Amino acid sequence: MVPRNEKAAVPISPERVRQLRKHLVVVLRALRRMKNPEYSASPLRPEPKGFAGRVAHTACSLCKGSCCENGKNHAFLDEGTMARVGRARLALDGRAVLRLYVERVPEVGYKDSCIFHGKQGCALDRSLRSDVCNSYFCGGLQVYMTGGDTVTPTMIIAGVGEKMRTSPILVP
Ligand code: SF4
Ligand code: SF4
């Protein structure tokens, strides 16, 4: 059982983009001040594979990213993420990294959610997301992912009441 995002989709305001830019400038400055920034690069965790991966993908799609509301205008982007992105894209300077993110902000996104949370889901690919985003599972999904049972047919229930949605029964 997982939650479900029911927020309205609204245009992303220029003020929100300004906040994101400001956040990234602070993070990039902090990264520049580090002695060995390459050692602080956060790992790029792979997507969960196999049946568990299919369950997670189905759950997050049905939920439509309820947990992304915590991303606000910072998307959990920190020095570790910037160090990882900088290492993978050596040709980019700080300004280009800033542009890389700002250009990905969708025109329309869910109200009071992460600035990258658009109607098609997260506008950042995995390599640009924070480690928080790449590793987080909400309560219900975490229980499933760590339970070790990937042989039982599984159905996802997202949300409650009239807005509740269920997935088909997924079979390993
Ligand atoms: S981790 Fe949980 S809350 Fe977050 S998108 Fe997936 S199902 Fe929804
Ligand atoms: S960056 Fe993507 S995955 Fe992370 S909180 Fe924002 S929309 Fe969600």
Characterize the structure shown.
The structure is a single chain. The chain has helices at residues 14-33, 50-63, 79-88, 94-102, 131-135, 139-147; strands spanning 9-11, 108-110, 117-118, 121-122, 157-158, 165-166. It has 172 residues and is mainly α. α1 packs across α3 (79-88). It is globular and about 50 Å long. It starts with 8 loop residues before the first strand and ends in a 6-residue tail after the last strand. Residues 65, 68, 71, 75, 114, 116-117, 122, 124, 129, 133 line the site of one iron/sulfur cluster (SF4).
Question: Given the helix and strand composition, which structural class is it?
Answer: mainly alpha
Rg result: 18 Å
Enumerate the strands of the largest sheet in spatial order, edge to edge or round the barrel: 1-2
With helices defined by DSSP (H or I, 4 residues minimum), what is the helix count? Answer: 6
Enumerate the spans where pLDDT stays under 50 for 5 or more consecutive residues. none
Output the helix-strand order.
Answer: EHHHHEEEHHEE
Our estimate of the beta-strand percent is 5-15%
The oligomeric state is: single chain
Mean pLDDT figure: 95
Name the hetero compounds present. Answer: iron/sulfur cluster
Q: How far do the termini sit from each other?
A: 18 Å
Estimate the global geometry from the Cα principal axes.
Answer: globular
**What is the share of helical residues?**
25-40%
Task: Report the strand count.
Answer: 6
What about the largest sheet?
2 strands, antiparallel
